[in-house]
Design goal:
By secondary structure, the protein is of the alpha+beta class. It has two domains: 36 residues, no CATH class; 36 residues, no CATH class. It contains three helices and five strands, in the order ααβββββα. The chain has a five-stranded antiparallel β-sheet, with no helix packed on it. The longest helix has 20 residues. The chain is flat. The N and C termini lie far apart (70 Å).
Length: 100
């Protein structure tokens, strides 16, 4: 029996839905956990923390450089090098703003 791509996608989606329901304990709990997502935590005055970090109730932290941390481990960081145009590209483009 050969399964079509659409059938495999449907089976995979059903498997993910079943996993979420089993983890949440009920369909209502699974839907609630998917809809709510993480919420940002603020200081006692309801303002962002002054240290530049953003904290979320699911254990996620975004540091001042934009790196994402989850439960103390870095999970993503922005690129640290800036792209630069080469001099040959600059020369090829020329100064197109001063056309005659």
């Amino acid at each position: 029996m050969k399964l079509k791509k659409d059938s495999l996608i449907l089976i995979g989606a059903a498997g993910i839905a079943l996993f979420l329901v089993m983890k949440a304990g009920s369909v209502k709990g699974a839907v609630k956990s998917v809809q709510t997502g993480a919420k940002e935590i603020f200081d006692a005055l309801g303002k962002p923390f002054k240290n530049g970090y953003r904290y979320f109730n699911d254990g996620t932290v975004i540091d001042p450089t934009g790196a994402y941390w989850k439960n103390g481990q870095m999970i993503w960081a922005p690129a640290t090098t800036k792209a630069q145009m080469s001099t040959t590209t600059d020369q090829a483009l020329g100064d197109w703003t001063n056309e005659a």
